[in-house]
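Our preliminary data section would be incomplete without showing what the modeling component actually yields. Below, a chain of 914 amino acids is followed by its predicted structure, encoded as C-alpha cells that our downstream tools consume directly.
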Amino acid sequence: MNDSPQTAMNKEARSWNSTDGQSFVQLPDQPWSEPAEKVIATLNIDITNGLDEKKAKKRRHIFGANILRKHAERKLWQILLDQFKSLIIGMLAVAAVVAFIYEQTLEGFAIVAVILINAGIGFFTELRAVRSMQALYKLGRVHARVRRNGQTYEILADDLVPGDVVVLEGGDVITADLRIVESSKLQADESTLTGESVPVGKRVEPVTPDTPLAERSSMLYKGTAVTRGSGLGVVVATGMQTELGEISSLVEEAEEERTPLEVRLDKLGHKLIGVTLVIAFFIAMTGILAGRDFFLMIETGIALAVATIPEGLPIVATIALARGMQIMAHRNALINRLSSVETLGATNVIFTDKTGTLTQNKMTLTTILMEGMEVGIDSSGDRARFKKNSEIVDVDENELLKQILEVGVLCNNATLKDDDISQATGDPLEVALLMGGMQAGIDRKELVGKWPEVREEAFDPEVKMMATFHKLDDGMFRVAVKGAPEAVLHHCRTLKTESGEVELSDEEREKWLERNNQKAGEGLRMLAVAEKMVSDSSENPYQDLQFMGLVGLEDPPRTDVRSAIQRCQQAGVKVIMSTGDQPVTARNIAKEVGLVETQDVGALMGSELKSMENDINREKLLDVLVFARVSPAQKLDLIELYQKKGDIVAMTGDGVNDAPALKKADIGIAMGKRGTQVAREAADMVLQDDSFSSIVAAIEQGRVIFGNIRRFVYYLLSCNVSEVMTVGLASLAGIPLPILPLQILFLNLVTDIFPALALGVGKGEENVMQRPPRDPEEAILRRDHWQGIAIHGAFITIAVIGSMIIALEWLNMPRIQAVTISFLTLSLAQLWHVFNMHGAQSGWFVNEITQNKFVWGALILCILLVVLAIYVPGLSYVLQVVRPGALGWLLVIVMSLLPLFLGQIFLMVRKINF
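Predicted structure:
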C-alpha cells in the first residue's frame, strides 16, 4: 500500500544533514520501542545541557514551527459574501427589481447603492471584530520549560524543535511528541487522543514496536496533559509530524462560537421580522386603498420593513464583545470564550484562592523553627542575616540550621538563572527556598553536583509532601522531604536536635503543631522539613522520617485587594476564600484584606464539608466566607452548592486538579503566572497578573458591555419605531408621507449604525459596580424598556409630523420643502435621541453619553452626511429633498430638539436603568 501524502512528508522530514560540522541526525521512527539512551544519541543531544541556541535555530529552520495546520481563516471575500446572505438584503433586492420593472431606474440604482453601502459597513465592522479576536487569541499561546545552553528557560511552544529537553511537572500541557527519559510518578490524561478518561502511568522503559498508541507508556503526545508527577522528555516530533498532526483533520473543523447573547439578539430580530412584515403590508395596503401610487406604497412598505428590523444588532454586539475582550486584556484578564464576557456581568459569587490572588505571590523565607530555637531571616541584602533574638547566627557553625536549608534547596524543582529571582522559574515557594539557601551560601548546583539526585517523589496533593533521593559518596542515599506540617510530623519517628537524635513523642508533635499554628496565625506560610538516610533508593520516602523543623515564608497581601473586595461587596458580589492553606493562615489573610472583620471568624475545614450536607447545615455553609485545607474535589461540591441556589459562580484555580472545578464554574479563572497549562485551557478567563483586582475589573467590564448592548438595542428600536409610527400615522390620516422610501433607507444607514456603534463601545456608567448583579435569565429588554421605546418613538413621531404640518399649513411651503423639513427633523431628532441613553442615576449634562468621544464623532459624521444629502445636487435629487431655507432650518432645529426635551422629562419621571 502506498504511503499517504502526510506520511510521505513525515518520512522525508525524519532526517537532515547538519551543516555546522555535526554528524548526520535522524529522528527515531519508533521512539517508544527504543531505550532512552539510544533516542538521546540518535537526536545528538546532551540531556543535561539541552540544545544550544544555534543548533535549535537550525532545527527549527528544517522542521518548521511547532504548530498544527491552522483552521482556515475566513477570507475577505467570504466575509463580504456573508453580508448579502440575509433576509434584509433579499427584501432590498426585491425592491430594486420592482423599481426597474416599473421603470423607476433612479430608485432602482439608489436601492442597489444602499445594498452596497450596507454590505460595506457590515464588512468592515465584522472584519474589525474578526481581527480583534485573532489578535486576542495570540496572547494566550502556550509555553514550555526547556533546557537550553545548560539553563532552564520558558519558551513559546511554537519554538520547540526535535531534540529539545522539556522539563515536565503535573499540570503541564504537552506541546510536542516526547520520549520520556526521566519519570517520577508521571501520569498523563490522553483522552484527547485515545478517548480514555482515566490518567495513564508513564515510565522510562521502552515498549514493543507494535504497541498501540494508548499503551505507549514511554511516550507523551502533543495535546495531552500531565496530571501528576514530574520528569524529563525529549522532543521527537513537532507540528504536523506529531500523532495529533496526523489526525489534525479531525480537530480542524471548529465551529464559530455564538454567544447566548447573540442567539437572543437573533431571536429578537426574527420576532421583529414577523411583526414588521405585518405592519409594512398593512401600511402599503392602506395607502393603495386610499388611492396613493402603487409602486410608492410597495416601496414604502419594503423600506419600512428594512428600517424596522435592526439588522445591525449582531454586528454591533460582536464589536462590543470583542472590544470588551480587548479592554479586559489590557487589564490583564484574557478571555478564552466570547460567551464569558456577558456571563461576567451576572456573576454574584467569587471563590478565590489565597496565594498569589489575594497575596503578592512574592514568597520570602523569614523564619526557621528548630528544637529550642527560632531564627529570623533578614533578606534585605545580598547575603541574608540569620538572627536568634538580636544575635547573629552563623549558618556554617550551626549544622542543624544548615541542614534544614539544604533540604529546602535539594527537595526543589525551581531554578534560578544567575542568582536573579526575576529570572526564576517554578513555584514561588520553591524559588523562595532556593533564594534563602543562596543567601546563606548554599547553591543547588553545587549540592546536586556533590549529591546527585537519583529519584524524585513528586508532590502529591493528597499526601501533601514531596521527596528527593540523593546519592552520597559512601553509597547511601539522603532523602530530603518537605510538605504540610501535619503531614510531615505524622510520618516522623524521631526529632533532630543540635545535640543529636531523640524520639518524637505524641506530646512533642502537639507542641510542634502549636508552634506551627502560632506562626501561621501571624500570616506565614508554614512548611515542615525532614530527612533520613537509606541504603536503597527504591524505599518508601515517607517512612520513619527524622523531623528537622519548620520554615516560615511570608507572602504579604496585595495592596489593592482590600478596595477590590469592598467594590465587590458594594456590587452585591459575594467573595469566598477557598484555600489549601492552614485555617489560621487563611483567617489572618482574610482579616488583612477585609474579607472578614475579625480573625475570630471561623474557617471551615474541607474535611468538615461532608458532615454539613443536610438541609439545615447547608444553609450555614452559605454563610461561611473562609474555607481552609480544601481539596479540588471539595471545590466542586462548593460550586454545586451555590449553583443549585441559582448563583452565577466564578472560581479561581491554578493546578491540574483544579481543572474540573474551573470547568464546572460558570466562570473558571486560571492564574497566568503560576497556573498550569491544564488549568488555563480549562478556564474561561486567564489572569495574566494573578491579581484579584483583575477579576473585579473583568466583572465590571462584563456589566458595562451588557449595559452598552442593551443601550444600543433600545436606541435602534426606538428610532425604528418612530419611523413606523410616522409613516403609519400619515397613511391612516391621509396626509402626505413625511418621509419617502429612499429617505428611510438613507436614515437606516446614517442614524442607526454609527451612533449604535458608538453606544456599543462606551465606558459605561460610573456606578455600575454599586448595583446588584443582573438576573442571568433576564431578557435583553425588560417591560419598562419596551414602554420607553414606545414613548420615545411617539415623541419623535409627533415632532416629525408636526414639523411637516407647520411647514405646509402655517408657513405655506411647497410640499417637497415640507417633506424635506420632516425628513431633516426625523434625522436630527434620532441623532439627538442618543443623549436620552444615559443611566437613571446619571446627570443631564455630564454622563456616560456626553463623555463618550465616539458618540460625538458619530454625531459629527452623521450631521455632515445629512447636510450633504441636502446640498449635493445628485444626492438631493435621488432623495427628493431641497434646501429648507433659514426659516426651515430654524423649524427643523426646534422640532428635532423637542423629543430630546420631552424624553429627558420622561426619564426623570420613569427611571430606566440599562
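Residues 1-24, 249-257 have pLDDT under 50 and may be disordered. The first helix runs from residue 5 to 12. Preliminary results of this kind motivate Aim 1 of the renewal.
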